[in-house]
Amino acid sequence: MGEEMRTFGYLCPKCGKTVMKTRSVFALAASGTEVECDCGESVLRIAFDGERYHLQVPCGLCGETHEAVCPAERVLEGATALTCAGTKQFCCFIGSEGVVEKQLRELAILAEKEQRQEEGEAFLDNVIMYEILSELRDIAVRPGGITCSCGSGRYGMEIRRSAVDLICRDCGAKLRIPAATDQDLDDLCCHMKLVLPGKG
Q1: Chain center to CA of 150
Q2: How far is Cα 131 from Cα 98, in angstroms, rounded to an integer?
Q3: Residue 21, Cβ neighbours under 10 Å: how many?
């Protein structure tokens, strides 16, 4: 039986990436430990006083550092989550690697949504934009669904506030798909295929 491990996860308030590191229960019980983001700008500190763990958690949701005191079993057994006092959302996870990874993915999506809302609505009409993107996905999976008249089938996508630009990766040609109104959606739904105006 290998040494028992615990995984810690949080969202770095500086670079916005998820941080997930695993530490042994032995090391945690002996002295506590630190979990640092690869960017070097944030550290989750875990100290042990013999009975309880004192955690300093960098919070990717509000940017503050939260302090929490947990009984030893909460840190060393099962799965636990610590809450951001400001947003009332979970901001730190302790548990098995699989559980922490799943929770961190959801936390990253939540943080992205919050940020978009703070910056004002990301799209002119969110519903239309998501429908347009869904329709583009459907067209893209058809054989020869999205191509360029230069002969390339490789393209990139840039999502703007009220349109989606398809850009040929070979010649740089651009096709703008409006994504603001019901009419835009109807127009796109008429197309079985899309061809970018190649610069060949």
Answers
A1: 35
A2: 32
A3: 17
pLDDT digits (tens, 9 = 90+) for 5-33: 999 999 999 998 999 999 998 888 877 79
Q: How many other CB atoms sit within 10 Å of the CB of residue 148?
A: 26
CA distance 163 to 191: 16
Question: By the 8 A CB rule, do 60 and 16 touch?
Answer: yes
pTM of the shown model: 0.59
Cα dihedral 183, 186, 190, 195 in deg (nearest 10): 60
- Cα 21 to Cα 30, 42, 94: the distances in Å are 18, 13, 10
pLDDT digits (tens, 9 = 90+) for 66-97: 999 999 989 998 899 999 988 889 999 999 99
| Helix (H) or strand (E) run with residue 167 in it | strand 163-168
